[in-house]
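URGENT: need a sanity check before tomorrow's submission.

F., can you look over the peptidyl-tRNA hydrolase record below? I want to be sure the sequence and structure line up before it goes out.
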Amino acid sequence: MTSADPFADPAAPAAADRDAAPQFVLPLVVRIERDAPPARTDALETSARAVLAFLSDPRTADGGEWAELLRGWEDGRIRKVVRRARGAEWRRAESLPGITVEGRSARVRVYPPVPLDGWPKELAKLQVSGTELADPEPVGAPDPQLPVLWLNPDLEMSAGKAMAQTGHAAQLAWWALPDAARTAWRDSGFALAVRTPKPSYWAELAESGLPLVRDAGFTEIAPGSCTVIADHPALR
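Structure tokens as predicted:
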């Protein structure tokens, strides 16, 4: 669905090698009940935290049951696809191995990577569309001590697309952090904020050298579009 900047991770393979490798995708499922949909910003933040929870899970470490799947996924493009579920669909999705992360109103489950054309049937039947979400109340300024994932103010994205993008940004920040900062972030429960800056501040951030997500252009927006900048205090 989307891909982060292939050169953000110094250890990442060259672009041609990444495209030649078997392609995997990281599935995320957001719970959207008709009568109680999550707030948009909370869903974006929870999606990012879910990706971080997966990356830091002991099962992804060397020798862990998800380690080979993680490596295969990172050797290709770090695609993420967000699908929605409700009711019985969500209960079936929760029965598969994965990690559920809860926000204030959002609930997102992340799964170990699957082949691009080999989704489990319980997830393959879920819809990608229909993730139009809104914030019922104005979203205030973020805590200056928190990592912030800044959305490009010039782009329009569905909530599902934006959830994948914030997941990318969180992953790029995780790759860039030293071990001590990773530990502190994990111990905080991966506290973070997602916000949309004024265009002038976005322009300033884009020149800062902070991790920046460039979309592959498979859906919704043009290839190479800059979607999210990861502003972690340890990277400033």
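My own read: Residues 159-176 form the longest helix (18 residues). Residues 15-128+142-235 form a domain with the Bit1 fold (CATH 3.40.1490.10). If you see anything odd, call me.
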